[in-house]
Design goal:
mainly alpha
Length: 114
C-alpha cells in the first residue's frame, strides 16, 4: 500500500509529526539474527536481580499502598528506619509516581524477562 506524504499526514497526523520532528526516537544498539540468542541476552538483565523498596512501590496504585509497602519492609528490617523515613517524606511531598512510572502486569515480559 502506497501513501503520499500529504495523505499520510491526514490519516496519521501525530505519527507524521513525530517522524518530522524526530521526537520519541529509540536507538537500536544491536541487531541479532538468532531470536533465541536475543531473548537470552535480554533476559540476563534481571538475572540474580533482587527488587528493592522502590521496585515494590512502583507497583502501587495509591500512596496508601506505598505506605503499607514501606511499613512492611521496615518491620521486616529489609530497609532501615532512616531509609523508610526518606521514602515516606518523598511519598508525602512528591507522590507515589515520583518513584517512577507504574509497573504494569506485563512489565517483566515487556522488558525481556519472560
Amino acid at each position: 500500500m502506497e501513501f503520499d506524504k500529504k495523505r499520510f499526514k491526514q490519516m496519521f497526523p501525530n505519527l507524521a509529526n513525530e517522524i518530522d520532528t524526530n521526537e520519541n526516537r529509540v536507538a537500536i544498539s544491536s541487531v541479532r539474527s538468532d531470536v533465541s540468542a536475543g531473548e537470552h541476552a535480554s533476559a540476563k538483565r534481571f538475572e540474580n536481580y533482587l527488587p528493592d523498596a522502590v521496585d515494590f512501590i512502583r507497583w502501587c496504585d495509591s500512596e496508601k499502598q506505598a505506605e503499607e509497602i514501606i511499613d512492611f519492609l521496615e518491620k521486616r528490617q529489609e530497609i532501615s528506619r532512616e531509609y523508610a523515613k526518606r521514602l515516606r517524606k518523598q511519598l508525602r511531598t512528591k507522590g507515589v509516581r515520583s518513584f517512577g512510572p507504574k509497573k504494569q502486569d506485563d512489565y517483566y515480559s515487556r522488558v525481556g524477562i519472560v
